[in-house]
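pinned: reference chain
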Amino acid sequence: MVGAISACTQLGDNEVAATLANHVEEGCERTLFVSNALIHMHSKCGDIEQAWREFNRMSIRDVISYSALIAALADHGKAEVAMNLFSEMQKEGIRPNQVTFVGLLNACSHVGLIEEGCQYFELMTRVFGIEPLKEHYACMVDLLGRAGQLEKAYNLIIYNIGAADAKIWGSLLGACKVHGNTKLSEIAAMHLFKIEPHDAGNYVLLANTYAEINKWDDAERVRKMMSERGMIKSPGCSWIEKLG
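pinned: its structure tokens
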């Protein structure tokens, strides 16, 4: 049954999820593993209420139970509820893991809770001695970027992550566009061009950053770069349309 639930989780199909949940109701033994799988399945299918119901009916919960629900709450923008659940988890004496903190940092990032996010990062590394993964740094870059603390986000990448991936640089580039920071957007874009040389979206994002502050010569330079590399322009790229 756990295998079937896991497969449904990958599909993200609510109808299949409901069918499997009914099978469990009709007689499948509700072990900790089955309940955890159901929480994860309902969360991935977007049914946070069913995930909550499954969590609340569990007599025994572990770090997987809490982490799965915290992640689901984060995805649905329910940061305060996720943080309260983490507090409950600590009261129960359940030690958090790397997945728990990815969920918490995501929760803070989605609603701009900078101070809380930084506190969780410190708690993870200094109190629980958990080594940050790229996923944690990606959350922090996103959190700081949304808040406009771009230099801080950039320094976090340079001094802690090493070989940052496209997701991390992309997060910084997106934040630079929002806040009009062309200097750091160029740095982030150059890294992205090396990692994903044929991803037109990165070029468009950089060009849009220039266009929004009327740096049309720079936007044109990026357009030419795209043309030289044989990239197809996107119909939604207004700056390309304007530049002709």
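why pinned: The chain has 15 helices and no strands. Confidence is low (pLDDT under 50) at residues 1-8, 239-244.
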